[in-house]
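Something for you to look into today, if you have time. I want to see for myself how the chain folds. Leave the record below and I will have a look.
***
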Amino acid sequence: MRTERRSVAPQTFRDMMAGVCAPVTVVTTMSDGTPSGATVSSFASLSLDPPLVTVAFDRGSRVLEQILAERRFGVNLLGHAQADLAVLFATRNVDRFAQIGWHLDDGLPRLDGAAGWLECDLHEAVEGGDHLLLLGHVVGASRAELPPLVYAYRTFGTHSHYDERRRPAIIDSIAALAR
């Protein structure tokens, strides 16, 4: 029989996790004709078959409550030049959507200029301590060839050599045709 061990101190855990690079997203939903969204850096791919992603929300989140009611959400993967959007959607008591460019994509709020977009149906909600982990079944996706915004050590940035990486010539040709 295994005995439960003591947990690491919350601040020690928080400081450790600060060093883990995380993608920065704005997760959105639409409820009664009103858009809502929040900055989320706890986003990851989970499965290819079926295509599933995960996002985690604090249990007290208003956006979480709306996603659970609507059973759909969008994930806007932010680009390196969109740190201002990450800060805006992390700020409480402001009209976030009045200050930015956005449009509806199949009934979900999509931020203009985001590096990527996923349209998700809620597949499952899983208990996770003080958070709820949402598993989203991806039903739509698109991306732009932009450096992603990442968060680590409590600051925003991007891959240090993203723009310098070698890419096959065909990628540049395809990107030119898409413009």
In short: Residues 61 and 102 are 22 Å apart (CA to CA). The first helix runs from residue 10 to 18.
